[in-house]
Write a structure and sequence with these properties.
Pfam family, one: DUF7729
Protein name: DUF7729 domain-containing protein
Oligomer: single chain
InterPro entries: DUF7729
Number of helices: 13
Largest sheet: none
Radius of gyration: 17 Å
Strand content: under 5%
Distance between the termini: 44 Å
Shape: globular
Keywords: Membrane, Transmembrane, Transmembrane helix
């Protein structure tokens, strides 16, 4: 690994003992940042998952489950990158500013990782219970699948989201604010089951290389959505960056339904989320 990553214990997610039926994470401090007059992010104004009004297109038991986990202070204090990435309009707004997205990632990374991972595993198991969202999950409810994949992908996206470059800047902050290469942020959606668009050519940087190395270590776990998206993405990146740029030796993709959003760009996935909120 070339970059600076947070210390962590690599543990296999126990959110589900079965493969998903549909795939439906630093040593140097950050360099000085230019002051952003709009950067007033505080702990109370931090982006939160599912921060828009949820649709009524839920079973009552599933709606109650969402209300329960979204009001759980242990969960909200984790500021989970894996759930913010696809479901938070506040996170989308913060991503427009290097300062604000850095502040958000600071909050995401300065948590008790083990406690947060345990919480995500617990909710990942609970969401598919008959008394919660089993019916909605079986019906491929977009918000339920996004929540489920976000719970599952907490560890790989914590490690990738907290990865810094040699200057101490978050790799994700570099990627999401790079307006000349908007595709640089697309690999971060792989752990959520979103395939890399076929024409995407992310910048061949050390950040990309080390982010994919993190993802590679999870891709052999068939309970992780990235087991369905990593292989094709690694091959595609190696086409643009060289045959050995990233590791292609993850476990072969398993059968079954493709990843959610397969073939969709992350931006289109976001639009689908917003449309679902309005239903």
């Amino acid at each position: 690994m070339h970059l600076l990553a947070r210390d962590h214990v690599h543990t296999t997610s126990t959110a589900d003992s079965q493969s998903p039926t549909a795939t439906k994470k630093s040593a140097s401090s950050a360099s000085s940042l230019t002051t952003d007059p709009e950067a007033t992010t505080t702990l109370t104004s931090m982006p939160q998952p599912f921060d828009a009004v949820l649709s009524n297109n839920f079973t009552s038991s599933c709606q109650n489950f969402f209300q329960t986990f979204l009001s759980n202070s242990t969960f909200t204090d984790c500021h989970p990158f894996s759930l913010l990435l696809q479901t938070s309009s506040g996170f989308f707004d913060a991503s427009k500013s290097f300062v604000r997205i850095t502040q958000t990632l600071d909050a995401t990374c300065k948590v008790d990782f083990h406690q947060c991972a345990a919480v995500m595993n617990e909710f990942g198991r609970a969401i598919k219970n008959e008394s919660n969202c089993a019916v909605d999950y079986a019906q491929d409810s977009p918000l339920v699948l996004q929540a489920y994949n976000g719970f599952l992908a907490y560890q790989p996206l914590y490690q990738a989201g907290c990865l810094r470059d040699a200057r101490g800047n978050y790799c994700f902050a570099n990627a999401i604010t790079n307006t000349t290469a908007v595709v640089d942020s697309y690999p971060y959606y792989l752990p959520l089951g979103v395939s890399l668009p076929a024409t995407s050519r992310p910048t061949c940087s050390t950040c990309l290389q080390d982010t994919m190395a993190i993802f590679s270590s999870f891709a052999g776990n068939t309970t992780q959505p990235i087991s369905q998206t990593y292989g094709d993405a690694a091959q595609q990146i190696d086409v643009g960056c060289g045959p050995t740029f990233v590791n292609q030796t993850a476990a072969p993709l398993k059968g079954g339904a493709g990843g959610i959003g397969a073939g969709l760009t992350p931006m289109f996935a976001l639009w689908m989320m917003l449309i679902a909120y309005l239903l």
